[in-house]
Amino acid sequence: MNWETIIGLEVHVELDTKTKIFCNCPTTFGSPPNQNTCPVCIGLPGTLPVLNEAVVEMAVKAGVALNCSIQKTNKMDRKNYFYPDLPKAYQISQYDLPICTGGHVEIDRGGEKRKIRVHRIHIEEDAGKLLHDEEEPISFIDYNRVGVPLIEIVSEADMRSPEEAVAYLRSVRSILQYAGVSDCRMEQGSLRCDGNISVRPFGQDAFNAKVELKNINSFKELQKALEKEEKRQLELYSFNEGDKVVQETRRWDAAKGKTISMRTKEDAHDYRYFPDPDLKPIFIQEELIHRVEKELPELPAEKSKRFLETYGLSLKEVEILVNEMALSHFYEEVVEAGADPKTSANWILGDLLRVMKEKEMTAEEQPLKAKHLVSLIQFIEKGSISVTAGRDVFDTMIETGKSPDRIIEEKGLKQISGEYELQQTILSVLEANPSSVEDFKNGKKQALGFLMGQVMKATKGQANPQVAKTMMEKKLNG
Amino acid sequence: MTMEIVSLKSQRDMWIKKEMSATELVEDAYRRIGATERKINAYLHLCQDEALKQAKKVDEKRSQGEKTGLLAGVPLAVKDNICTDGIVTTCASKMLGDFIPPYDATVVQKINEADGVIIGKTNMDEFAMGSSTENSGFKVTANPWDLERVPGGSSGGSAAAVAAETVSLALGSDTGGSIRQPAAFCGVVGLKPTYGRVSRSGLVAFASSLDQIGPLTRNVEDSALALDVLAGFDAMDATSFPEENTGSFANGLEQSLKGLKVALPEEYQQEGLDKEIHQTLNRTVQELKALGAMVETVSLPYSAAGLSAYYLISSAEASSNLARFDGVRYGYRPEKFETLEELMVNSRSEGFGQEVKRRIMLGTYALSSGYYDAYYQRAQKLRKKIREQFEGLFQQYDVVLGPVSPILPFVRGEKMDDPLAMYLADVYTVDVNLAELPAISLPCGFSESGLPIGLQLIARHFGESTLLRTAYQLEKSLNLDLRNKIGKEASK
Questions:
Q1: Measuring CA to CA, which residue among B1, B3, B121, B23 is closest to residue B72?
Q2: Has residue B4 got a pLDDT over 70?
Q3: Using the beta-carbon criterion (under 8 Å), do A270 and B369 form an inter-chain contact?
Q4: Among A51, A141, A274, beta carbon nearest to B376
Q5: Domains, chain B
Q6: Rounded to 5 degrees, what angle do the CA atoms A265, A266, A267 make?
Q7: Quick one: closest CA in A to B316, which residue?
Q8: A144 & A205 share domain
Q9: pLDDT tens digit sequence for B260-311
């Protein structure tokens, strides 16, 4: 029997506002524990939430970027549950009236475009973080993250493979980055993802029991977790143990490489949602939506089109550059400063990506300055240094942050292209190797290679080989 | 020296005329408390050090020639569910027995800015849930008119503090009658402002959509003066009314009631209403007519449903508002617990009293999936009907008149075993909260046994001026002697 995999994703994105959703605390990542807190966000008795309007605008922006309709009348609801990371014991969220509904995202499936529908986007506040001592039975709570604004983007169950799910998440991530809604850094938790997955025989209309996967922290893990869970379900069905596939929440254990049951439907929470009486309904004006639409920056799809049309790059090259917003910005900066588009792409997609991978750096973190890469490319173009020396300069730039001209100077990598400078060296090489000169004149053309090698050695590799070779041939033939 | 009657205005005038300094006024208040507190138990905590410091500051302000505020030198008390920076705020609950807020409620800031002096925090029903102050986790307050009887609740400590003449102003909070009913039981004036008129920031929430802070005073003029200080938009409370305060509520009290249209709902005079209260209501109607007002009987058919809607909505909100008291960050924590769940369950089981637990259970049930539509949702629909009904009425009438409580102050312990009977006594006050209207409880007479009887006037949204003027004119013409033995002793 042929089986089909059904996947839907719930994506949580921290909005890039300066302050939290209901108080004036900063949203800075990485502050000392509990530094970014106040009586309001830690829910001390008597404190009240007041909505940060920037959050609404950001959510509208996300909705517009993901092709959603924007709900004009909004309310906030309370989702009630007890957990130490949730200081009010309820999360302020949106229940039955999400701010955005019915959008879509395009993904590429083997060169073919496919639409993945967005079911809804709603606004909510983030919770804190529990830190458990590794030896003592003690837990600590960091409330810095409490009250950081989030949107939850719920897709339809439109994806049919783990690859599609990853492509969807990548697409959502880059769209939101371009829209300026979030930095979407999975490693910092500003982008988080839960996966819903089920399998069914081809042709069957009804869905089988779906499993929700939690604790997925990277694209790679998303792929692995979905693959493992897909396999687990398929195996159970094929061994006639389909009844063991139940609606439940399973935790992805990356170290063990498997999913582990957390809770089944029976012990699901009753969140007792109800409208938050501390907050008034939010009315979104048509003007705000228009303004957001007008001011929306160029999104990845448009940028890809422009790159293809303007820079003569391949589809694959454009895709890699555009998918990482920081990389595409870097590329454009380099090209706009006058470097050749194709050569620039080669450097970025080749050496820069290699270095980033080696050093496990993101495009935001990589230290290379655009103007330095531009000048490096121009040095090579003018023949001031060789391509080989260029690689050396590139690596040194990454390590030291120094400018190429300084590195070339310090390392003495400047290529000698002037006939005047080379004249003396060539003459002394010819003088010192009379037998090779004789060989060449007797028709042993390979002697030229040996003599060139001597020139390079004498100049410590700085001689421009093209220029030196032409000069040498002239001398030998003349 | 001491005053005959503690009134806010008289105290302020004495300070202005330099007959008494703020420090002397505060010392006098503590002397009064010393003379009465053993019998009354109105206060949970006194804050002498802070009060004397503030009094000194106010006196110095004057000697430096600085401008002083509306409450300059006036000693006052604050209900213990209103946060005071650095002063323990317990909500009369073991749960918050040692909770010291690091911030002032907005109303407390306003009092400090107006140069008032907070001298202590008053007793109440735990988390403001109750109508007798017997649900306090710490002590039981007596009614200064009859020490065997309850002062009402939940702001019973505040009402008793004013009735015992220890202070001229005490803040209360009113979710379903918690200012008006104790005011009626203790023979003082209690004002529940329009929802959104006074900031709730710093008021420990019971039911967020119903809670409102208001003053308990000895007369209507003081009530208006207090509202001048308390009212106004607050950026810290998203439900506070965004319009700027227009003028003083204390102005315009003298305007006559000629042509005032008063509605008297027949539903407010039905079976269950105490005969003596009913008689007082009838006499007050005659009084209003004599003052030139027109009084007509009207019908408020949905008011019968108000009580059920109120108990569902307020309990639902409370179940969520009180969930944060889990023993994790602050407040009561049990000696013994093994697991996280035990920590939370034991904190709540041991930290909360019976009535609070009852309401949390009720509210949790009303919000549960499968019951939400039948209870919470339906209650909200009724709430809307009640609101619309009042709105309709206020297109034709300026003020609605009715009783505050169907019963006279009862003897302590009498109703503690019958929570439903206690809930039923809120029948006349809860509609006002559901409809978010302003209402004032005014002493209008006495029972034969000498217990005070209060009636309430209700006005349209933000109609506090009409409300205060009507109450003021009525108070003047009724001209009741509202001093009790305890209060007189305190003033000796």
A1: B23
A2: no
A3: yes
A4: A274
A5: 8-261+463-491 (3.90.1300.10)
A6: 95
A7: A274
A8: yes
A9: 999 999 999 988 899 999 999 999 999 999 999 999 999 999 988 999 999 9
